[in-house]
Design the sequence.
């Protein structure tokens, strides 16, 4: 090794705390007696310090980019429901492996049972098919049925004759089957309505109602709703009734010890089923959609990681427009009918968007009952 | 994306997998919100925690199996450290507030502003050095990845030849600078 590389080697080991006792002695002697070497050590000390700082600073800069990427996706800073923390995946995996294990157990049980009953390998091979265990949407792929063409189900992935693949020509991938999603339609503004049963008052068609301006009061046994100076009669009812205004009053009486629960229902709670749109939902990691027309009927091609039963597509009609929304549990997406090419689903944040709040179920509130003579 | 997958990719140096760690931000936010902090604090804490995690992971010092718990613990500790420091500083300022001292601090600050920082200086020097030296030096001096691993990851015959290359790169890097210049940089 050249002399200066040897020096760098020694300094590098010193700075990384890798010198053995003897080497430490050598280092110490040179450091104390050779001013040039001492300067060299100090310079490298600074260089190492600088490399660490530079490395950390540029990592910080890249992290800043990742942070912004995350924030862009997570439009609302206050709402935390968007990205599944990695930790949860593990528990999902546990659940999945649990399911897999139980399927195996059942399969083993059946195998063992058939073995005991008949003792022939032919029977064992057919066992899973006879008992119709679903391995997760892949029928006809059991080892046992492979040898037996007559029992193979004629369903194949991506069968071109099935309507499943229709999306292909529009640029959507088509893995798995198509599900339909409920389509609802609601007018806005609609008539206020309510149900009132077992101490629970549910209010429909006014999802952005302000709870501070709402009071419930009794005159005798009759319950009334007071909202912003208007008085409405409340009769016990399990079916949705229109709220009828009975007068105006500034006074709703004095507080009693009685209290009732009030639930302001989201817009879709009072919506009617609609058939002016067909929704075709397919499972995919990325949320996408587009509208198309077929024989005069409007079709929404939808992709995403949604459970069909949790999803609703809602048409909100106002006197001068109509808008489409996809509601998946507490997530709300705006759908634009003008998008006839695959478009990313855009989530409306419940924190920032008044539109989104129309569809999000609000918390149950307990209000005191007032009494007026 | 699972935790194991992310860690495997990061171990290989696939740095952009770090972005998945921001899915822990809501947890950090909740913590800072409960402890008089704001969004900016949450962001800084998580950033620092990710950096120590990544540095430890790359040099083989990370052996936990609960990444979320690990990161949140770092955030907690850093936050309480910071609060302690603030408290002590506040006490100090109360005790001795001298105009002279402030002036001195201002002067030093100006001095620092005029000069480029050590970090920037080295960043420029590393860029000038070019590849493969830049990556090799970052991997060995900043991330302190073991030489055996470096040889494997960056295609050197063995740890010894990777080390020889590192020393030559350091020599070239040193050539861009002078003792007089670098010694006063902060």
Sequence:
């Amino acid at each position: 090794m050249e002399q200066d590389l040897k020096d760098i080697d020694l300094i590098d080991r010193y700075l990384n705390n890798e010198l053995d006792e003897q080497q430490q002695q050598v280092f110490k002697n040179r450091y104390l007696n050779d001013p040039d070497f001492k300067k060299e050590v100090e310079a490298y000390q600074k260089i190492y310090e600088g490399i660490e700082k530079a490395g950390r600073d540029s990592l910080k800069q890249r992290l800043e980019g990742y942070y912004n990427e995350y924030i862009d996706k997570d439009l609302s800073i206050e709402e935390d429901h968007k990205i599944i923390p990695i930790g949860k995946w593990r528990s999902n995996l546990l659940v999945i492996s649990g399911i897999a294990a139980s399927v195996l157990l059942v399969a083993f049980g059946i195998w063992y049972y058939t073995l005991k009953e008949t003792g022939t390998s032919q029977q064992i091979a057919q066992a899973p098919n006879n008992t119709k265990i679903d391995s997760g949407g892949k029928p006809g792929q059991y080892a046992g049925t492979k040898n037996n063409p007559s029992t193979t189900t004629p369903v194949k992935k991506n069968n071109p004759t099935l309507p499943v693949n229709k999306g292909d020509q529009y640029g959507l991938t088509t893995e798995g089957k198509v599900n339909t999603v409920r389509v609802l339609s609601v007018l806005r503004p609609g008539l206020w309505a309510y149900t009132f049963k077992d101490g629970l008052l549910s209010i429909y068609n006014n999802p952005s109602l302000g709870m501070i301006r709402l009071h419930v009061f009794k005159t005798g046994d009759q319950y009334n709703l007071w909202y912003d100076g208007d008085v409405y009669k409340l009769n016990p009812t399990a079916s949705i009734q229109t709220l009828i205004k009975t007068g105006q009053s500034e006074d709703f009486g004095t507080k009693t010890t009685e209290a009732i629960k009030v639930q302001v229902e989201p817009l879709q709670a009072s919506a009617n089923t609609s058939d002016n749109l067909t929704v075709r939902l397919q499972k995919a990691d990325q949320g996408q959609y587009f509208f198309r027309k077929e024989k005069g009927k409007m079709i929404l091609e939808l992709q995403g990681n949604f459970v069909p039963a949790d999803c609703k597509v809602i048409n909100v009609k106002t006197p001068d427009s109509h808008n489409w929304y996809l509601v998946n549990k507490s997530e709300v997406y705006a759908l634009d009918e003008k998008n006839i090419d695959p478009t990313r689903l855009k989530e409306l944040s419940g924190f920032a968007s008044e539109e989104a709040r129309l569809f999000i179920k609000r918390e149950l509130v307990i209000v005191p009952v007032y009494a007026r003579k | 994306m699972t935790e194991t997958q992310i860690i495997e990719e990061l171990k290989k140096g696939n740095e952009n997998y770090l972005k998945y760690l921001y899915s822990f931000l809501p947890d950090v936010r909740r913590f800072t919100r409960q402890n008089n902090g704001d969004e900016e604090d949450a962001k800084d804490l998580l950033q620092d925690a990710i950096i120590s995690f990544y540095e430890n992971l790359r040099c083989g010092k990370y052996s936990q199996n609960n990444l979320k718990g690990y990161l949140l613990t770092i955030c907690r500790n850093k936050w309480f450290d910071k609060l302690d420091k603030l408290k002590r500083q506040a006490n100090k300022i109360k005790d001795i507030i001298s105009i002279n001292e402030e002036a001195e601090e201002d002067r030093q600050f100006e001095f620092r502003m005029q000069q480029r920082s050590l970090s920037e200086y080295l960043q420029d020097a590393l860029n000038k050095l070019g590849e493969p030296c830049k990556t090799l030096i970052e991997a060995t001096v900043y991330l302190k990845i073991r030489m055996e691993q470096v040889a494997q990851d960056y295609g050197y015959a063995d740890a010894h030849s990777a080390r020889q290359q590192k020393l030559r790169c350091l020599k070239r890097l040193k050539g861009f600078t002078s003792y007089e210049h670098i010694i006063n940089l902060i």
Q: What stands out?
A: The CA atoms of residues 32 and 42 of chain B lie 6 Å apart. Chain B has a mean pLDDT of 85. The radius of gyration of chain B is 21 Å. DSSP finds ten helices and no strands in chain B.
